[in-house]
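Attaching the record inline, Q. Sequence:
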Amino acid sequence: MKRSISSLLSRLLSSQLSWGSLLLGLWVISQFYEKPIFHVFRLLDLAVRFDDSGYLIAATTVLVVVNAARALLLYEGWFLIGNGISETSGRPMVDRVIPLAGIPLCYQAVALFDFPSIPHFGMPAILGLASVLIVQYLTRSVTRWLNRAIALVLLLVSFQWLDVIPALTRYGFGWGELSMAIKNIAELPDKGLVLDIVGIIFFLCLFLGSLLTIELLVSYERQLEQFRRFRKQERELSTLREQQLESRAVREIQHLVHDLKRPLTTIIGLADVMIENGDNWTCQHASVILRSSSSMDQMISEILNAGSGRIISLCDLVNYALSQISPMEWSKNIEVDISHDCGNTD
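Structure, as predicted:
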């Protein structure tokens, strides 16, 4: 009972549905955790007070990390749930439809229930949705869901940097309150260009890194599949070689036994002649030769034709086994206890 419960728990913990539900639960909790945002305000205050671009970039980095962490929980959660339902139901399109419906629904729910933190559903969110489809398409040959999730992480983090680039605000990037506050503060001391350059550099590095990671994962999966194919072919060839060797050995034995049948036929014929024409002493020895030759002829027939086997009694089997071990020194220590009517038992 304990083993069955532990195996059930291990399957649940290893399933994509369980991990996806856990990530969505953490995403809901993260909406009420605002302590990292206080660090953003503190760094922005220092950037204004000392007119220092370093504090501004630090505040931007903290904001990107917080937004990326929350986005990862949301997107990865729906990503895993979609994959889990797709594998369970056997419908490939489900893993694409569920994230496209679930992620915007979560954004609407946050605004509807007036959560402390209200994420902005802007261009990075739309690109995040597109990245889910891209990762699902490019990594369709990748069997391990954890590898596919890693590829999605880098894409989502790279898109979060687009929110803090002032030059992209007109295109729908970074319309959230904190993102706009950072860009407005960057414009006051004319440091918007610095923020543009830093954001573009981080975006390009992470985006190119994500594409490279996807390429490596797909290449690794192809090599692994090729290795599995080679292993399967090797096993099939090994099985075929064993079958060929076995059939060859059987054929050689059959040929050898068939060659033995000719001289054995001569021995049986001569034994019959000796019994018919010989004296008493000769007939006795010829009878022994005839019985032994007939037994050998029966064994040869059984080897050549499996259907020619005969049924023997249990006593005959035991007596034959005892006759084979009688020359051994330890044969005297063997005791046999068989009922008297075993001769009639097949």
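The chain has a mean pLDDT of 77. Residues 65 and 157 are 8 Å apart (CA to CA).

More tomorrow.
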